[in-house]
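By way of example, what follows is a protein record of this kind.
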Amino acid sequence: KEVRRFQPGDRVTADNGMPCWTCYHCQRGEFSFCEDYQAIGHSVNGAMAELVAVNESHVYAIPDNVSFKAAALTELVGCCFRCIERCEIPCSADVLILGCGASGNLMAQLAKGTAAGTVTALDCQMNKLERIASRGVSTILADPSDFSIHEAILRKRFPHGLDYIIDTIGNAELSERSISLLKAGGTFANYSFPATEKRTVSLDMGLFVRKELNYIGSTFQHHSFSKCLAAMAAGKIDPELSITHTFPLEQYFEALDLNWADPASIKIIIEPNGGE
């Protein structure tokens, strides 16, 4: 009854992040670094239900031409947005995205919308590459058992190297080897958390000095929903391109099993109220 900006029946999405607002970083406006960060559906109950209560300050109107499915991925789009902004990709840059899962798909779309000269996506699943190729992104099919194959292709296409390499896989060995593919002054962006037993990347200090390379990290988003929804409404990014399956809430566990077992699956949507 105290809500002022919305009416029953409005199409909305909500930022699940809950910074504490009082720690050192929050008081500096650095909410992503909050010392007691909470998240609905993660550390706070909610999200996997027909009805979810959130503070009005976290709620955003969904543009008329943006679907519920697309809006459901606003938080992930925001995380990718954060990484692209961190990279500050200049005109005519050559960009490589490692991985074409949900984040890699969105990252490649966003990179394509910058002033970059070329955007290339690398993955070992052809169906994932075919999806992003429809947005004008170049693709390379990788062999996870032999990295030298895709490395040879990249060195032929980009004899002077790449300006930006953005990792969305979390394979430390792949990241370590990919750094040598950067051109002078190039940047490697570490977006993903480690997903392999090897969790550290060794760096050639001399290479970084000689080529003036950069290694940057990128964390999750906060307060970026408005611009993400605007980008969807303008057709700058299509989150539905990363959605491979849709399940009702009653089949929650089947959805998780499929996502775990099927390497061709990307993003799975669970609809709590029977869909749109």
